Automatic annotation (TrEMBL):
Reaction catalyzed: Random endo-hydrolysis of N-acetyl-beta-D-glucosaminide (1->4)-beta-linkages in chitin and chitodextrins
Highest classification ranks of the organism: Eukaryota, Metazoa, Chordata, Cephalochordata, Leptocardii
PANTHER family assigned: TRANSMEMBRANE PROTEIN, TRANSMEMBRANE PROTEIN 2-RELATED
GO-annotated cellular components: extracellular region
InterPro entries: CEMIP/CEMIP2, Chitin-bd_dom, Chitin-bd_dom_sf, ILEI/PANDER_dom
Signal peptide: 1-16
Statement: the UniProt record of this protein carries the keyword Signal: yes
Protein name: chitinase
Chitin-binding type-2 domain span: 20-74
Enzyme Commission number(s) from the entry: 3.2.1.14
Keywords linked to the UniProt accession: Carbohydrate metabolism, Chitin degradation, Polysaccharide degradation, Signal
One biological process term in Gene Ontology: chitin catabolic process
UniProt organism field: Branchiostoma floridae
Highest taxon listed in the record's lineage: Eukaryota
Amino acid sequence: MLKFICLTLLAATASGQGTGFPCEGRADGVFADLEDCTVYHLCHGGRDYQIRCPDGYFWNDDVHSCRLADIAQCCSGQGVCEATSYAEDVTLLAGRVQTLESDSADVQGQVSSLTTENTALRTQLTSLKDRTNNLTVENVALRTQVTSLKMVAAGLQDQLNNISVPIVPRTTISVKVVSAGFDDPGYLGGRAEVFVDGVQYAMNGRGYNLVTVNEMTGQMEHSVRFDTHGDQAAGVALRDFIRGVPVGRIVLIAVHDEASTFSGDAMAELNSLGAFSPDIAHRTSWAMISKKGSKTSWFVEDERDRYAGPTVIEAEIPLSI
């Protein structure tokens, strides 16, 4: 026991005399402090040496040594620490062991749960890898099919390119000419339309509206208008234009609104196209389908008095092939 106390004195802090603990009249030995469980007193030769237990330890007077704080059961501030038996110490330690074992079991359960989850995740990952591999195989197969289809399409395109479709040339064209004076019912303000195979080409303005068509191809070449009501020079311009039309061209003419005022200079040229009555009256409607240089079987000319229009003529014209 003395050896233990000496070792304790070497490891503890001794306060020497003046601690207030009554060692006088006491036999030499170790004693509990009356108020502080973390210290005890060594009385030797009537002198007091206060010694402090290590951190986390309380003095246990039953075994005359410092014990773990949760085992020592010290009643600090209420007098001397109560002594505990070794059986009580064992019970307390057993309780702590059970608590630790319970905590360990909980941790083990969590570890097992995490292990199970990890296994499930690994299984899912393996499944995803398998699906990815399958998709890769399918993608390769689809690319192969696409390449094959492209080759087939290229072959079909080559066949189409090698197919020659005979082009049947047109042999006739259908023409329709509409002329309306300013006061004709349903056409107030006048009208001049020239249709070739259903397409309207006339400029549809006041005066004479002319459209020339190639007699071999059936294509429209010129669409012009001459305002022989409002422009004094329009009659001469109309005359010169007709003179410049090549022989053989198809000439389609429609009067819009009023065209008689300054048309005198063009009468001879209109007569050369086969016209019988080009010298029309005020706001008369007049239309003609003709060919320059010769009078044909499909030649048409017609006229309606003011308020009696419109004048509408049609013809199926054979092309010169």
